[in-house]
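Most newcomers find our protein records easier to grasp once they have seen one. There is nothing in a record beyond a sequence line and a structure line. Getting from the letters to the tokens is the skill we practise here. An example says more than a description, so a record of this kind follows:
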Amino acid sequence: MTDQVVLVNEDDKEIGLMPKLEAHQKGVLHRAFSVFIYNSNGEMLLQQRAFGKYHSEGLWSNTCCSHPLPAESAHHGAVRRLQEEMGIKAELQFLFTFQYHVNLENGLTENELDHVFWGITDAEPNIDVTEANDYKYMKPADIKADMQQNPDRYTEWFKICFAEVADKIKPKQ
């Protein structure tokens, strides 16, 4: 069941399940989550996606992102995947939901209703190298500047939701 995504309508009502790769091949709307972790210095923890991922490999993105398991809440999935991918625990708070639809490489499409969570921790990441190649902390202003100069270094969903996250979350700068 871990390779199944929850299909939803635009009101986030579950309408079925589908294998993850098939959902991305067909561009079917499904539930997802994105996690943004800050440290106590106001820096955002970015993840470089592992090389060999089925899409967006090697690109920089938010701390963690994935799909909740069937019968799992987005919040629980976010907490679980943050631990699995980055090896850290943090109290996560819901921030907002957004829907996006973009074409990716390899004929894949992201069509997600994405639940965004955030938290603060100074825990040192212990990354799962099958999920993340690297990580770094950056000030939001520096991320914004780099994203404007080098947009091809970042995932599509991160480019879409970064500004709203940075606007809503103002940890110590």
Summary: The longest strand covers residues 109-120. The chain has a mean pLDDT of 93.
